[in-house]
């Protein structure tokens, strides 16, 4: 069944108000009519099986038939803090990271980030990533759309204390043959805890950055013995979180 | 250190003959000269620390200083059989699959593959993927370049018996909440065995295909409760293989 995220306030009792973009998708793209069944999501983790009742040009309503807790969210709350890479790789990570279950996507400029977002353009870039993430969330049966934020490196450091576990992807660890740290962190996670994954740009992190974070309790980890590209490391990490916590 | 794959016959005693593309990269791209140190790979799993001795216009030689077994290969031999997706996603999977450690990359047309490679064009497409995989292997510190082959669906089915374990990515399993099968397969793997991962195109596999393979011993698996895109599923599977066998 087709899935649509709706603002939370769209749901009143057993009726959901459908916004213009959803109405357009149902009526014009899918050419469906009242009676069409779909899944609506309020972004809090609930999903609603619903049926279209009215379909006007720019608005519509649906009747909720069943309300249930979604079972497609990772059992831990995962934030990916990703240092801005070159080109459009950030979009790949936004999309795949959503499919793989991340809950928050923080973009920041690390010391070796070649690309920079200027303050004026950043909101537009965040908005574009947010749109990619919403589409990916609908496609992948997520019950929550991850939130994208552009943050300063200082904020990242300051927020470390609010997490239960913090992992830094650090390729020096891979080169030195360190292998156990990441699995040790994942095995200690309990449902509901907050995990932060910090992944660097093409040139990796500066040692001073890694030191600043490890002093606050972050763990530098290798994701296997191979050297992964900047955009591959977050996908490895998220797949491993899913494997360790959902399949094992 | 920069890494280059050389044909096996380039190594004679302690001398390696450098082909034109490597000479071009060292002399023209990097602007290096005799004395430059690098790692040469013969594609069998050995790596050679070496120093440039001569650098002509189209050829050169290097002296091997140290020869060692690489430690960057997955402990099991992994073949990814990937049903042709739309567009250029196949290139993403070739590149990321190499970074994540696959050894063989088989491309085939499944029943729901919208894209088709005609017999005339296939060799050129395979050659292009092979080039992407060689570059990815050098960048990711692999000791082996995965081999790309375009095979017929019939061949895939016939080859299943030659593997120790065969996993089919099957999203119907994800929708039904099946979660344990993949981890059960991975936990039973011993070093050196042969694992085949079969991943479908955008529309997934036809039930008849899955039945044909499971009758021969393949295991249909979910990669977590979310629905992954065709190009994301192989990356999840390979990351999980690495996590289960290399980090645990």
TrEMBL record, chains A, B:
Belongs to the RNA methyltransferase RsmE family. It catalyses: uridine(1498) in 16S rRNA + S-adenosyl-L-methionine = N(3)-methyluridine(1498) in 16S rRNA + S-adenosyl-L-homocysteine + H(+). It is found in: Cytoplasm. Residues 73-241 form the Ribosomal RNA small subunit methyltransferase E methyltransferase domain. SUPFAM superfamilies: alpha/beta knot, PUA domain-like. InterPro entries: Alpha/beta_knot_MTases, PUA-like_sf, RsmE, RsmE_MTase_dom, RsmE_PUA-like, tRNA_m1G_MTases_N. Pfam families: Methyltrans_RNA, PUA_4. Keywords: Cytoplasm, Methyltransferase, rRNA processing, S-adenosyl-L-methionine, Transferase. It comes from the Bacteria. Its EC number is 2.1.1.193. Specifically methylates the N3 position of the uracil ring of uridine 1498 (m3U1498) in 16S rRNA. Acts on the fully assembled 30S ribosomal subunit. Residues 18-64 form the Ribosomal RNA small subunit methyltransferase E PUA-like domain. This is Ribosomal RNA small subunit methyltransferase E. GO terms for biological process: methylation. The keyword S-adenosyl-L-methionine applies.
